[in-house]
Amino acid sequence: MPFDMFPNVDRMKNIRCPVLVLHSIKDEVVPFYHGKELHKLSRHKFDPLFIEGTTHNNLDKVSEDIFAHINKFLNFIDSSFSIHETSRSS
Fold first, then answer.
1. Tens digits of residue pLDDT in 8-65
2. Contact in structure between 59 and 22 (CB atoms under 8 Å)
3. Is the Cβ–Cβ distance between 18 and 34 less than 8 Å?
4. Per-domain residue ranges for the chain?
5. DSSP line for 20-83
6. How is residue 10 annotated by DSSP?
7. Listed residue (79, 66, 52, 81) closest to 21, CA to CA
8. Is the CB of residue 70 less than 8 Å from the CB of residue 20?
9. Which of 64, 13, 23, 81 minimizes the C-alpha distance to 47?
10. Can you tell me the distance from the alpha carbon of 24 to that of 79, in angstroms, rounded to the nearest whole number?
């Protein structure tokens, strides 16, 4: 393709809140390196969840792992950030 269908990497400089990256390693729609780059460029690092054994449309195979990771992320936000902190950071 002559252009990037998923230019989220270009938008990361504008994201001030914590970002949780969940991505299938064998995603056939959105290349795996997109998830790695989004995590690398995020301002507030939180461990990404890169999932093996799934593709783009079957992450539900590991839903318990995903929900546990989302819960950790929500606890991270709750204990580490407030609305004022994320709006003041640049």
1. 889 999 998 899 999 999 998 888 889 999 999 999 889 999 988 888 888 777 788 8
2. yes
3. no
4. 12-88
5. --EEETT-SSS-HHHHHHHHHH-SS----EEESS--TT-GGGGHHHHHHHHHHHHHHHHHH--H
6. H
7. 66
8. yes
9. 23
10. 28
Higher pLDDT, 88 or 67: 67
Indicate the pTM of the whole model.
Answer: 0.74
Q: 24 CB contacts (<8 Å, ≥6 apart)?
A: 32, 50, 51, 54, 55, 56, 59
Place of tokens 């299938």: 24
And the tokens for 77? 């936000």
Query: Residue 26 CB: number of other CB atoms within 10 A?
Result: 12
CA dihedral for 78, 36, 7, 90, sign (positive or negative): positive
